[in-house]
Predict the structure.
Amino acid sequence: MHFHPLRLAAALLLCAATTTSALAQAFPNKPIRLVVTFPAGGAPDILSRLFADKAQLGQPVVIDNVPGAGGNIGADKVAKSPPDGHTLVMGTVGTHSINGALYSKMPYDMVKDFTPVAHVASAPNLLVVNNDLPVKTVAELIAYLKANPNKLSFGSPGIGSSVHVSGELFKSLTGTSMQHVPYKGRQFAIPDLVGGQIQLMFDNMPSALPMAKEGKIRAVAQTTAKRSAAAPDVPTVAETVPGFEATTWFAVFAPAGTPKDVVAKINTEMQRVFKLPDVVEKMKSLGLEPWISTPEELAKYQAAEMVKWAKVVKDSGAKAE
C-alpha cells in the first residue's frame, strides 16, 4: 500500500487538529484545581474564591492553598503539572515577576514554564504601622527611620512578595534602613504588627484596609501612583517620595504547552465572572482594581514588570536568604 507523502502529512495535520479541538470540547472532564500560592485570607485567595464561586465550566473549580518560599512552592507545583488546563495558578507579581531576580536558584522559569491565561486585578499595598509607633505621615516615618537606623522591622508574607519589595523600594528611595522579617503568610505577620513585635508593613490593601478601618493598625500611605477609590483619604507614598510606585497584581497562569483553545475557554469564563457587577463591586470595596486581560496582554505586562522589579531588587541589594 503506497501513501502519498503530502496526503499523509495532510491526514496527520487533520488528525492533530481534531485531537486539539477534541481536547477543548472534552475540557474540563474533571475538577479544575486553582492553586493559591499563599495561605487563605489574602488577596490571591479572595480572588480565586470569587472565581470558584461563580465559574460555570461544567466542572467545579477547587481552591488549593500551597504556601511557602514567597509563592514559589505552589507555582512550581503548577509548572510541573500536566498541561491540560485542569491545574492553574493564581500567580502574583512575586511568583511571576520578582522572584526570578531575588532567588539565586528558582525551581521554575517564570516565563518558559507557564502559559499566560488572564490578568485579573491589581491593588495598592498599604503602608500600615503599629498604633504605638509615633508616626502618622510618610515624612514622619522617614525622619524616625533616619533618627533610628535599623531599629524598626517591617514584616511580609514572604521573601519576594510585593509586600517585601515595597519595603525594599522604600528603603532605597529614601536612604533609610530597617529590618525585613518574612513570615509564612500575612495571617502570621498581622498579629505581630498589632502586638508591636514588628512596627510596620506594606500589606496588600484588601487585607490591610479593613484592619485599619477597625483601628487595629494605622494606615499611613498607599503604594500606587494614584490614590485608590477604596481609600481616597489615604495619601500615596509618591506624594512625599516622587517616583515611588509598587503595584501588586494577580493573574492566572497554566502550565506551558496548555492547548490554545483550552486557554481561550478559561479566559472567556474569567472575563465573564470578573465583569459581573457584584464581583466588580466586591473587588472595588476591598481596594482591588479589576483588570481582565487577554493572554497576550498578560504576557506583555509580565515582561515589563520583570524588567522593573529586577532593577528594584538589584538597586536594593535584597536577597532571598
Observations:
- The longest helix spans residues 5-26.
